[in-house]
Amino acid sequence: MAEITPAILPKNYEELKNKAAMVRKLVPLVQVDICDGAYVSGRTWPFSSGKELDPHFMKILREEEGLPFWEDLDYELDLMVMDAVENFDVYAKLGAGSLIFHLGAVGDLKEFREFLEGIDPYIRDSVRIGVAIDLDFLVEDFFPLAGRADFAQVMGNSRIGIQGENLDRRSLEYVKSIKKKFPDLPVSVDIGVNLDTVHEILAAGADRLVAGSAIFDSGDIIGTIEEFRNLA
Fold it and tell me: Is the dihedral of CA 183, 198, 27, 134 positive or negative?
């Protein structure tokens, strides 16, 4: 059965906390989209207030508090930021169980591969590393990195950092190509995941469905998650 992961695109800490509260007893894991306004046009928490980082973000880094409801939820941070490699230690300190790097934001892919190889084994034991393949890249660009990643995330549309976009069917071919070459590597699909597209995404070989607006804008979060699970 495929895993269903709600995605939160938080304008601020309050939205992050409120949406986490909505699903804290329903799923074990949520994905949080972190957007810096540089790699993608929009800004989300903790960058949404401009130059000043959100105070809760700073408190989490200082271990004065944790991510909302961390006792009940594991977190996955989708790092749509230009400094993900440079500030890896900072993002790792937030306490998320998974961090996702985007091919378009990591610079030279050979150097990125060396970075992945050099991550401290202690950190690798506690933080899963995902690599997101944007549709502006060839799926083959990911292949040399697959052995250093715990999972792949195929973006369902090239308009990343925005929820409610339609599924670009090219993403299904990306999923098929990755699963054919690396059958044991888990693959997520993020963007365009809804109750109308779930069958074809799963048929392509996806192991996990990351859905934002399809869940939070449904008007029935509990029922929608259950329906996803029944279809998966």
Answer: positive
HEC string of the chain?
Answer: CCEEEEEECCCCHHHHHHHHHHHCCCCCEEEEEEEECCCCCCECCCCCCCCCCCHHHHHHHCCCCCCCCCCCCEEEEEEECCCCCCCHHHHHCCCCCEEEEEHHHCCCHHHHHHHHHCCCHHHHHHCEEEEEECCCCCHHHCHHHHHHCCEEEEECCCCCCCCCCCCCCHHHHHHHHHHHHCCCCCEEEECCCCCCCHHHHHHHCCCEEEECHHHHCCCCHHHHHHHHHHHC
* 55, HSE (Cβ side, Cα atoms, 13 Å): 1
Which CATH fold would you assign to the domain 3-231? TIM Barrel (3.20.20)
Which two structure tokens, joined as six digits, stand for 148?
């250093």
Residues 6 or more apart from 142 whose CB is under 8 A from it? Answer: 103, 131, 133, 152, 178
Q: Do 91 and 98 contact (CB within 8 A), yes or no? A: no
Beta-ladder partners of 77:
32, 99
Specify whether the CB–CB gap between 150 and 130 falls below 8 A.
yes
The region, left, alpha or beta by phi > 0 then psi within -120 to 50, assigned to residue 13 is: alpha
Read off the pLDDT of residues 92-105 as tens digits, 9 standing for 90 and up. Answer: 999 999 999 999 99
Terminal-to-terminal C-alpha distance of the chain: 6
pLDDT digits (tens, 9 = 90+) for 56-98: 999 999 999 999 999 999 999 999 999 999 999 999 999 999 9
